[in-house]
Write a structure and sequence with these properties.
The protein has eleven helices and seven strands. The chain has helices at residues 4-12, 15-27, 86-103, 131-134, 160-163, 170-181, 196-207, 210-222, 229-254, 259-266, 270-283; strands at 38-40, 44-49, 52-57, 60-66, 69-79, 113-119, 151-154. A five-stranded mixed sheet has the order 1-4-5-6-7, with helices on both faces. A two-stranded antiparallel sheet has the order 2-3.
């Protein structure tokens, strides 16, 4: 399976998707940021600890620019699991970005840094969202400590109104995770998927279900675009059913059940059952 971090970056690094995510989650869907105003930013920064130089890497980051002037540095961090240390991680990324501004003499005007944490888990994020949540702070010290807060967006928990505001392929991802969380049948729209490759790889990665990857491989062989979510889901469901039937067939063959009986029970062509039987014999 394709590495999860890479597939997340591939989709979100596309300017139309990146701008769409930020516009919906920060600006209620208003087109504040346009894709032609975004420029890739370095995702790597270094720090020194224990006398050694270490490197840390953001998932995706871009400069939002007005001509040659940088308005802000925007970063996306993807999480499939809850993390107790997320505020500490985010402040280290943001701090490194501010440090870079101090070191870069070519920068004429300083700019703010904003990080969005995209959480794809099925359970609510109940982990720290600020520095004060990470440790016990004595009341006497609180007036002197800045409580650094992070922006966590729980994709599976977005409401339908918010999801409807997405205009890019990220809408497909949000719809899928929302439906999965509430155990509702996933309904595919007829909207054309613009970035088929990146979207299907991401779906396969985040779900841990290689049926999406098989669907991707099939579509990648036949066409580069033009598919929609409805077609995708039909292929996904059919692939899932076929895989379950084949898994059951292999189990029954190993138990000595005849191919003819198995074909009727699992609703597979007898030819496919015989192929699976032959593969078992070859491996034996």
């Amino acid at each position: 399976m394709v590495d999860k971090d890479i597939t997340e970056k591939n989709l979100e690094a596309l300017n139309d998707v990146f701008a769409d995510i930020v516009n919906v989650l920060l600006f209620d869907g208003r087109p504040v940021i346009h894709e032609d105003e975004l420029e890739p930013a370095s995702e790597h920064s270094i720090f020194k600890a224990d006398g050694k130089i270490h490197e840390q890497e953001r998932d995706v980051s871009k400069f939002w620019k007005n001509g040659e002037i940088r308005i802000s540095l925007l970063g996306l961090e993807n999480q499939t699991k809850k993390d107790n240390n997320m505020p500490l991680r985010v402040i280290s990324y943001d701090g490194a970005a501010y440090k870079q501004q101090l070191l870069d003499r070519a920068i004429k005007k300083k700019y703010p840094v904003i990080t969005l944490v995209l959480y794809f888990g099925m359970r609510c994020w109940n982990k720290p969202k600020s520095l004060f949540d990470c440790f016990d702070v004595p009341e006497e010290l609180k007036p002197f400590i800045n409580d650094y807060k992070i922006n966590v967006f729980e994709i599976a928990w977005l409401d339908e109104e918010t999801i409807s505001k997405f205009k890019s392929d990220f809408k497909i991802v949000a719809e899928f995770f929302h439906a999965k969380r509430i155990n509702e049948e996933i309904k595919g729209s007829k909207e054309i998927i613009k970035h088929v490759d990146e979207t299907l790889k991401l779906m396969s990665s985040l779900t841990g279900d290689d049926s999406f990857e098989r669907v991707y491989n099939e579509l990648n062989e036949k066409k580069k675009g033009g598919t929609n979510m409805d077609e995708l889901l039909q292929r996904y469901v059919n692939k899932g059913k076929t895989q379950k039937a084949e898994d059951a067939t292999i189990k029954l063959l190993k138990e000595g059940i005849t191919p003819e009986v198995i074909a009727k029970c699992v609703d597979l062509p007898i030819e496919r059952v015989l192929e699976l039987q032959e593969s078992i014999l070859v491996k034996a």
